[in-house]
Amino acid sequence: MDKRVYEDLNFYITPDRFYIQPCNASEFVLIERMTGEISxxxxxxxxxxxxxxxxxxxxxxxxxxxxxxxxxxxxxxTNRGLVGVIRNEPIWRLTGVDIIALLxxxxxxxxxxKYQHELHLSMMGQVLNTPCFYFAYGYDxxxxxxxxxxxxxxxxxxxxxxxxxSDKRFVWNGALLGNFPLLHHYVLPLIHGxxxxxxxxxxxxxxxxxxxxxxxxxxxxxxxFCRGINADGDVANYVETxxxxxxxxxxxxxxxxxxxxxxxxxQTPNLQYKPRPQLMTGRDHLIACSRHFDDQCRRYGPQVLxxxxxxxxxxxxxxxxYDATVSTLANPNLTYVSFDFHxxxxxxxxxxxxxxxxxxxxxxxAFGVYHVGNDGKVYSYQRGVFRTxxxxxxxxxxxxxxxxxxxxxxxxxxxxxxxxxxEKHIDPTSLFxxxxxxxxxxxxxxxxxxxxxxxxxxxxxxxxxxxxxMGLVRDGLNSMKRYYMNNFSDGRRQDSIELFLGTYRVREGxxxxxxxxxxxxxxAVEFRKRSVLATVMVKIVLLYLIILYPSxxxxxxxxxxxxxxxxxxxxxxFVAKHRMDFVDFPKLLPKK
Length: 592
What we know:
By secondary structure, the chain is α+β, with helices and mostly antiparallel strands. Helix content is 37%, strand content 22%. It folds into 3 domains: 189 residues, no CATH class; 268 residues, no CATH class; 63 residues. Helix 1 packs across helix 14. The two termini are 44 Å apart. GO terms for molecular function: phosphatidylinositol-3-phosphate phosphatase activity; phosphatidylinositol-4-phosphate phosphatase activity. This is Phosphatidylinositol-3-phosphatase SAC1.
């Protein structure tokens, strides 16, 4: 029996019920709006679709249900954009979503609860509007080609059902689907990350080349509020990136991973431009790190751990601790490679990254790729992965991963006869080269936006093969934006992620029978914070204007300048003294 997810659905809304009917099947799902009870009906059922008194909408999938203070809400796909096609299966990007209350009225809520309810709704929307989420109706985006084929057929094994066979590490609506019965036809798993699919030509032969980055739901969060490892061995900003290409006869997949340094450490925002990372005391780093790598080796095989952080300054303490921990583990499946990216590539000498690629070349040759014929014959398995990190697992990490992926791709193309005699590299002037660079740069920007709130740094190198002046300017602007978001808005963004992933669950009676972590008084506090910060900025701007553009340097101007300096100084001292009060910290799970 085919278990593909239904693609086109009619959504009937009546005062008492929701009906979800596939356009090409004689069945439907019925949801009672008062109780939330869900039932499935086929031919012969006594239940019928409504004839009058309903609103009809077209939807493209059900993402699940979530409980907010106002009760249960159904989350549905209202719009989508085609990314591309892999093995005749369309891959879609989520471009429209609706969160619909089962209870048609909020009159049962107090004013405080109504405020909290609207806040929860906006937080859910904030996550769903973060670029980008992806889904497919017949292709398992949560699994790599190798894992997919080991479980079922390479198109996603529709006989099992996408959600049932999915890798739950990468299903971002898993908590929403937990409130929805496992009806395989209706359950649509979402991944968060980046997907690009391109049909390209090499010497007259066509292939489909794709990049799929899957962000993990475990220990997920924002840049400065989600660092290091947790007690279960899950690390922050963990991403599996798969590069694959499909020809008329072959499929080839190459997987890499990235993830935060697997130790207990933190980098608490405190209004400083770059807070110092600190190892946490009283935690068993060794046990958590061991759990992490035991799991990784079980899933992927041997690991080459590429650490790109600085060997001096604030990052050095983490480099030494990571090195010492891996040495103590004495796991024969782990190879630690430390490469001081900033030192080796200083003065924009990014060509020196070839030193790292040459250093790990033998391990890459040993790991290989997953290569399978379209007839199902397996020619090789990938037998290990490169796990790369920098301090954020963003900018430096993406640069190195793109170089490793390029080497793997070119080796596979040589093996499959895509190059002419003597050729070993993609023509740097070819369209394929331009596509490769653009896709990896976009991958950097999207993963960075999802974790830090801004696009990645250093993407000018990934796009052009060299660092540029405009790239440095762009990096400066993104760094300023990161500073603002990390200090003044990421607490709410972290709360939104916790709510969406179900790490924090709203309980019945919240805000009435017991207090909610989010209260209306937060709004007044936030207003006061922003007022003080705005005052500081205005004083700084006026001070600069007086200095740079005075009408004339007379006594009046001097006194005005002195007055503004004194006021700016007192304001700065006040903010510095109370700086932690100005940081936007998470409130749902503040001890994380």
